[in-house]
Specification:
alpha/beta, five-stranded parallel sheet, globular
């Protein structure tokens, strides 16, 4: 399969050491430029300053100051980010309807439904993959969302 070419994606994941093989596939095999964000401020900065083609998003994300994180906040921070994105609260170069691929350990059916509802709001496209994830489904979803 051919590379996707000149596309830029944001991978918003606070445990980046665990996603090395995904990053390699995205950059080497698919030829994508990947920006990494570990904190809410890094993710917001990327959305505001870069014209992104896709966002890969975890739902359970630590905050900028992990010592102050409330349990409920970090368990749903990615969902809050997704809602703000779709509502147009994250102004900048990235459009509110950018495709999003959620890759997370959240497997509760009600939570997954809530994630997909938020992600597909306002003409957005959102897909979900449960961790641990294999490379083939990630590649298939990325190709489908931006290929």
């Amino acid at each position: 399969m051919k590379a996707l070419g000149d596309k830029t994606i944001l991978y918003y994941e606070d445990q980046q050491d665990k996603v090395r093989t995904i990053l390699e596939m995205l950059t080497i095999k698919l030829g994508l430029t990947v920006l990494l964000a570990e904190t809410p401020s890094e993710a917001r900065d990327a959305v505001e300053k870069r014209n992104l083609d896709l966002i890969l998003l975890d739902i359970r994300i630590r905050g900028d100051n992990q010592d102050e994180d409330e349990e409920e906040d970090w368990r749903r921070r990615g969902l809050y980010f997704l809602r703000d994105l779709r509502a147009g609260k994250l102004s900048g170069a990235t459009p509110a309807d950018i495709p999003v691929l959620v890759i997370t350990g959240v497997v509760n059916t009600a939570d997954v439904d809530e994630i997909l509802k938020a992600g597909n709001a306002n003409n957005g496209r959102c897909r979900y993959l449960a961790k641990p994830v294999r490379l083939e489904p990630v590649e298939r979803e990325v190709r489908d969302l931006i290929g």
